[in-house]
Amino acid sequence: MQRDKQNNNLLIKEGWKVLRFWDFQVQNEFGKSLYQILDYIENFEKYENKKIQ
After folding, report:
1. Which of 3, 40, 45, 46 has the most CB atoms less than 10 A away?
2. Would you give the distance in Å from CA 33 to the centre of its chain?
3. Is 35 left (phi over 0), alpha (psi -120 to 50) or beta?
C-alpha cells in the first residue's frame, strides 16, 4: 500500500490522473470498471472542481 501511495504521488506530480482497480474487479466486473473510467473521463471537470473547492 505504501508503494502505491508513492507511485500515485509521483504520477500526480507528473500530471497524470490515477484510477486504481484490483485485478479481480476488472476480471469479474469489467463493465462496471469500464463505466467508472468512462464516467471519470466524461465528468472530468466536475471531479476536478470538487477537488479544488
Report:
1. 40
2. 10
3. alpha
- Kindly give the confidence (pLDDT) of every residue in the chain, 53 residues in length, as a single tens digit, with 9 standing for 90 and above: 899 999 999 999 998 989 999 999 999 999 999 999 999 999 988 877 766 54
User: From CA 34, how far away is CA 14, in angstroms rounded?
Assistant: 24
Question: Residue 44 has which C-alpha cell?
Answer: 472530468
Domain ranges of the chain: 20-53
Backbone angles phi, psi at 33, to 5 degrees: -65, -45
Q: What is the CA radius of gyration of the chain?
A: 13
